[in-house]
Amino acid sequence: MDEHRSSRRGLIAAILLGVAVAILYPFSGPAGWLVAPVLAQQPQQPPQPQQGQQTLPEYNLGPGDSVEITVLGEADLTRTVTVRPDGKIAMPLIGDIIAVGLTPSQLAERIATALKTYLRSPQVSVSVREFRREGVVYLVGQFSRPGPVEIQKGWTLMDVMGAGGGFGPRAAPRKASIVRRGTGQTIPVDLDKLVTAGDRSVNMAIEPGDIIMLPALENRVLVMGAVRAPGAFDMEEGSRVLDAIARAGGNTERAQLGNIGVIRNAPTGKPTVTQVDIGKILRGNSAQNIVLQNTDVVFVPDGRVLWTDILSYLSGFGLIRALFGGFGF
């Protein structure tokens, strides 16, 4: 009997000791098995990103962003590339692919789809390695795509021109300018030299906040008289008399090509007439084929003409003022 009571006392002591150990040392010691099942039933917290990691599920890629492309099991296709100013990246096998405006996951999906022609079930991941956008410049005027343009470090005027889509149809590239927002300085720029002649001296560095101005062409010429389609025409800079007559559909059969007049408003406010002989131009006298200016009037007579009478006639011609905003006749 005493032995039985002693055994019960020993069992109770052991249980009490186990409970005490479980409270003081919940994950170690002989009573660990008592609390482990309870902890296993608690909901686990999702893993937190380590400090310094950045998740950008909604970030849209832009020119200058550096992205790391990983193709599982294909070391030759895994690389880091930069989104070019035209919004594309280059990849082996598939060539150029649009990246601008896509999220990294969307770009990964697009690359994987393109690689299916060459690989079986390609697994692609894309992550942003470096954000290289420096700021914004503004294209104002006769660009194909005017508006703000995000630039990256080291961009030049040519890079921005590519982002702006080039010139519009009425642009005057020789009269472009750059306004430095910080200093207010205006820098004249001949974009025609840059784009047409590839003059590197014009390809200046661009700064965030620059405003690139591209004005509209102001070289409107009126062609009248013995031409097939008389009217006002917006001519390119450097256009000449023959260019204007060609824009007007060419001369009629009755045109007096040896006595064409170019009427120009002089600085004094009075119009002057310069007579042009097309025959001399065709025989090699290029001086006769004069360069036209804004608000010039090219008059092709169909018979004998007194230029004083023509000037008097044009002075009361309301269309001149309407076309040129007060030409001065």
Textual characterization of the structure:
- Residues 10-57 have low confidence and may be disordered.
- It is elongated and about 85 Å long.
- The protein has 3 domains: 66-130, wza like fold, CATH 3.30.1950; 133-214, Outer membrane lipoprotein wza fold like (Roll); 220-324, Roll (Outer membrane lipoprotein wza fold like).
- The protein has helices at residues 2-24, 32-40, 104-115, 157-163, 191-195, 241-247, 278-282, 307-315, 318-324; strands at 66-71, 79-82, 88-91, 95-98, 124-130, 133-141, 147-152, 176-179, 186-189, 211-214, 220-225, 231-234, 260-265, 271-276, 297-300.
- Helix content is 26%, strand content 24%.
Jot down its keywords.
329 residues; wza like fold; Outer membrane lipoprotein wza fold like; 3 domains; five-stranded mixed beta sheet; 9 helices; 15 strands; 26% helix; elongated
